[in-house]
Description:
With 226 residues, the chain is an alpha/beta fold. It has helices spanning 3-6, 22-26, 94-100, 104-107, 113-123, 134-147, 159-166, 175-181, 192-208; strands at residues 8-12, 29-34, 48-55, 65-74, 77-85, 128-131, 150-153, 156-158.
Amino acid sequence: MGLDLSVFKSVFYPYESTHENKEAQDLQLRRAIRFRLDAQSLFRKYPIVIFDFETTGLDANRDQIIEIGAIKYVNFESVGEFSTLITTSIPLPDVVQRLTGISPDMLVGKPTLQEVLPRFLNFIEGSLLVAHNASFDMGFLRAECLRQGIDIEWPVFCTLKMAREFLVQLERKSLDSLAQHYGLQFEARHRSIGDVKVTSCVLKELLHNEGHHLQTWADLSPFQIG
């Protein structure tokens, strides 16, 4: 079933034709995407989409997403992958190019975020979202959804928050530090799919070891992103 039939719900905002305010016109029609879990839902029974964005900078209201990577897992077995570079109207800063290895010419001819976003929302349908430092990625996702007239409410939790709770002895909680702690080795760091693969293995270790007692969505409340 397509997303627009199963998850999107149209929400009509009041608007009088006498209003000249453009912002009011833009709010005539909004779509709402909502996926909620009951507090006692057993979260391990749901598919999990681990995702990561590369962006032109840190400001979700001014910068843009240039890469989306996501892998859908059921019982930590991969059942689907979403990966794409995205063209941008913002010049790509040198620091981003050095960190990610993404150059401006790599983005030429790639789809726009307006084209990519509906496909990504279809991909996550019915799944929990997970990211490392999820507030950053969700900030960009929500900002872009709002720009496209969509209000999104989705269950998401954060491996960085989990690491801060369970691995207090570690001085740093970056993906590199966590991978070293668990004896994991990876390539293609600082590209979206590469970071997703690291995050998935870190999450698996956290849930198998320090967080083995976590069962319900309520149990994950300290690690959720509002």
